[in-house]
Design a protein that fits this description.
single chain, flat, mainly alpha, about 130 residues
């Protein structure tokens, strides 16, 4: 990283303020919950971390992953869009595009899963 900084390039690792003790405790609890495959608790903790560290794209991305695994594609797409905005603001255009594409694909998936009620008309009655 030092070599990159000396050449005037953006570091690979984003520099952040030291995390609060509460955030560090939540990160540890999140690691445990993820290890136990406790998606509900993991989502609760990732959501709380997103509130504590609103500029960190990891948390909405993690929420999106957990929501997708929980069968909630529409909510996952919303979380991925939040992550995409943060990545774009931080200059990580490739990650932003990837999150946007994933959100778009999940949005299409959730449209297929959502019940759609159409009126029966002569045109679609034979379908």
């Amino acid at each position: 990283m030092l070599v990159r900084l000396l050449k005037g390039q953006r570091p690979l690792v984003r520099q952040t303020k030291p995390a609060s003790r509460a955030a560090e405790t939540m990160k540890s609890a999140l690691a445990v919950a993820l290890g136990r495959h406790d998606h509900a608790r993991s989502l609760e903790l990732a959501t709380a971390l997103e509130g504590l560290e609103p500029d960190d794209a990891r948390w909405p991305r993690r929420c999106g992953d957990l929501l997708r695994m929980s069968g909630r594609p529409h909510d996952a797409a919303t979380a991925y869009r939040r992550a995409a905005r943060l990545y774009a603001q931080q200059g990580f255009e490739d990650r932003s595009r990837a999150m946007t594409a994933l959100a778009r694909s999940l949005g299409e998936q959730s449209a297929h899963l959502a019940p759609v009620h159409h009126s029966i008309t002569p045109e679609n009655a034979g379908r």
